[in-house]
Specification:
The complex is a heterodimer of chains A (49) and B (628). By secondary structure, chain A is mainly alpha-helical. Chain A is built from two helices and no strands. Chain A has a domain at 1-26. Chain B is built from 21 helices and 21 strands. In chain B, the strands form four sheets. A nine-stranded mixed sheet of chain B has the order 13-21-20-14-15-19-16-18-17, with helices on both faces. Classes of the chains: A mainly alpha (49), B alpha/beta (628).
């Protein structure tokens, strides 16, 4: 719940509502990754994180 | 537990999940403790939640997490995520592979940073206690706060330069009283830190740990060589557009870090510079790469100087505070000091991301809670000795466990005189005293010491004790009072963050054609009466030792001076290559036994190598530490 309100607050403050559909799709994809048990380990590249 | 009006306010700062995680605790605005997680876990640049560092700082203050007013994380994860998405969007369709690699990490973990932090922090809460609120200041504000609030200045310009935080990569701010106002910012993907890292990678060193090696390599470049000038010209003509005010734009055609899995665009760099990337750290570094290191170092210094000039003009302040990874470029810092742009300069000793933990906590205290600030006469960092300390009993317990014969000095005077004699006899001494340092430099509490006059000392320390590249220089610790007898430096340098030249009268003449001699011949040429700490260009990364902040180390240097008048010792961090600096007596003893160090001094206990039972060792420990 706090995640949703954090995201909403962030989009409001930054006035970046165009990111909302992108984030929604990514979170849904994320759910697939989590339930699919896929690995989320990335190689270390400076700006990825 | 509820805070009463009289009870002190504690703020816990955390840096994590990127690199160099750390924790710092502030009590009513004063720094109580701070430590890097890597020192406890023995995993270099450990990026995990700093559980052991948090545990330590709370223990140091004798409180639980429930007594903390706020926990402050050193950056804004959602803003960083915004940068990631917008960058991929801007560069699309290139970067798809990187996108598919990075995004799962974010949507599985990092996007839920608050929940991750809360889960990790709950481990420290007593049953039924409520979690303190979590705060998220911006990355560059954390850096700026770590530079300004502990500084001795009431009013100062603040320059923060690093790889990248959320968006900002460079910022100029103005610190006054308890406030910080950001005046200028340069945003990702234009980044001086990442430009330097790209060259670090091209010269065969690791990004995010090899930058200081590149800096150490730069003086081996030939300043008169056509190739060095060509490299500098290529950088300024093609890679970066530097403006008069120090602002800059990178030509992103040449860089892959924004959306790729490498730092640079290899075919374009090969074509531009005419040399291939150096592939491995193990092979010898050729003159081409030394010239390249010198070229990027010169460009970096030029940008830093212009930024500093802008900071001076924008703020009107005569004092400057520095932080961010680029502030660890002590050669650039030395040039800044020499430039006379500012009357005084103060650099945060933990300028990298670990220092963000402290900056975040201080930012919340002064800015978030609007608490007044009274600058300390010197600074508020307590010499950066902010880590754990071990009692004599704990040292002796460790010695007993290893069945290690120990000689106890009766008092400090006997101790420092014995150690001064050992140094004078050419011995290499592991010096483990008091509280561990915060920041990457060992400042005389977790140090390996040697005699700087000894012509063989640099080679011996590099190859037989640190097991690292032979070209790397060593730094001197010098009595604060005597620094100007040895070095041309206009101020103190308590945190070993300023490089300045060895005095002319201590230097020895160089042979004709010195610059064109092979590396090893140049390296082992006796350039001064202090050969072990005089770098190839007669420079030295100086630590001035103050009686006020480290009386025991000061007494040791003073005792060494009594022998032959030399107030300088070689000081290198107590570790081997790839290992975090030692934290506990056990770490120190094991490191001592695995290397060719002659003596170990922990508190008043002196241990001689020849008396020690051999440590069961099959040499596998060398693989424990991934080379940095």
């Amino acid at each position: 719940m706090s995640f949703t309100s954090d995201i909403w607050g962030f989009l409001k403050v930054r006035k970046k509502f165009w990111l909302l559909p992108l984030i929604t799709v990514l979170v849904l994809l994320g759910a697939l990754v989590v339930f699919g048990g896929g690995s989320a380990v990335a190689p270390f590249i400076y700006t990825l994180f | 537990m509820t805070q009463t009006k009289t009870s002190p306010l504690y703020i816990l700062g955390i840096s994590a999940y990127y690199h160099d995680s750390a924790a710092a605790l502030v009590k009513d605005g004063s720094i109580v403790a701070a430590a890097h997680e890597e020192r406890f876990t023995r995993k270099k640049h450990d990026a995990d939640f700093p559980a052991r560092a948090v545990n330590y700082v709370l223990e140091e203050a004798g409180i639980s997490l429930a007594d903390v007013e706020s926990v402050v994380f050193y950056d804004k994860p959602l803003l960083k995520f915004e940068r990631l998405l917008e960058t991929y969007h801007a560069f699309a369709p290139s970067g798809l592979k990187s996108f598919l690699t990075a995004i799962p990490v974010w949507i599985k973990e990092k996007l839920f940073m608050r929940a991750m932090l809360e889960k990790a922090l709950k481990e420290f809460l007593p049953e039924g206690a409520a979690l303190p609120p979590l705060r998220f200041p911006e990355h560059h504000l954390s850096h700026a706060a770590s530079a300004f609030f502990p500084s001795p200045f009431e009013d100062a310009a603040i320059l923060t330069v690093d790889g990248v935080g959320e968006w900002a990569t460079t910022s100029i701010s103005h610190g006054r009283g308890n406030g910080i106002a950001t005046l200028r910012e340069i945003d990702f993907p234009h980044s001086l830190g990442l430009l330097y890292s790209a060259f670090t990678a091209y010269c065969g060193f690791k990004v995010n740990s090899g930058e200081y090696k590149l800096m150490g390599l730069a003086p081996y470049g030939d300043p008169n060589a056509e190739q060095t000038r060509f490299f500098e010209d290529c950088i300024e003509r093609e890679l970066i557009d530097i403006r008069e005010d120090g602002s800059y734009l990178l030509n992103m055609r040449y860089f892959s870090y924004a959306t790729g899995l490498r730092m640079y665009n290899e075919p374009l760099w090969r074509r531009l510079f005419g040399i291939p990337p150096r592939t491995a750290e193990s092979e010898d570094v050729g003159q081409d790469y030394m010239n390249m290191a010198m070229a990027i170092q010169h460009v970096t210094e030029k940008i830093v100087l212009r930024l500093a000039r802008s900071a001076r003009e924008l703020t009107g302040s005569t004092c400057l505070c520095l932080a961010g990874g680029v502030a660890l470029n002590c050669v650039a810092n030395g040039k800044l000091l020499e430039s006379g742009l500012f009357d005084r300069i103060w650099i945060q000793p933990a300028s990298g991301d670990a220092g963000g933990a402290l900056g975040a906590a201080l930012a919340w205290w002064h800015i978030g809670l609007d608490k007044p600030r009274v600058p300390e006469a010197h600074d508020a960092m307590l010499g950066s000795y902010l880590g754990p300390e071990f009692s004599s009993d704990e040292v002796l317990r460790t010695c007993r466990r290893f069945q290690a014969p120990v000689h106890m000095a009766a008092d400090e005077s006997e101790l420092v005189n014995t150690v001064a004699d050992l140094l004078d006899a050419g011995k290499v001494v592991g010096w483990f005293q008091g509280r561990m340092e915060y920041g990457p430099r060992a400042l005389g509490n977790r140090s390996i010491l040697g005699d700087p006059r000894n012509p063989e000392m640099q080679k011996r320390l590099n190859l037989k004790i640190k097991y690292r590249e032979g070209f790397r220089p060593f730094a001197p610790s010098v009595l604060e009072e005597d620094v100007r007898e040895y070095f041309d430096i206009a101020s103190d340098s308590p945190y070993m963050l300023i490089v300045e030249p060895v005095k002319e009268e201590l230097r020895k003449p160089l042979p004709d054609g010195y610059a064109s001699l092979p590396l090893w011949e140049r390296l082992y040429w006796q350039r001064s009466t202090l050969p072990a700490i005089t770098h190839i260009d007669f420079s030295a990364r100086i630590q001035t030792v103050s009686r006020r902040t480290n009386p025991r180390y000061w007494a040791l240097l003073n005792a060494f001076k009594q022998r032959h008048g030399c107030a300088v010792v070689v000081n290198t961090s107590f570790n081997v290559r790839g290992e975090p600096v030692v934290c506990t007596p056990e770490d120190a003893y094991i490191c001592f036994m695995r290397t060719e160090m002659d003596c170990l001094v922990m508190g008043n206990a002196i241990l001689y190598k020849e008396e020690q039972p051999s440590l069961p060792d099959d040499g596998r420990w060398r693989k424990e530490y991934v080379l940095d």
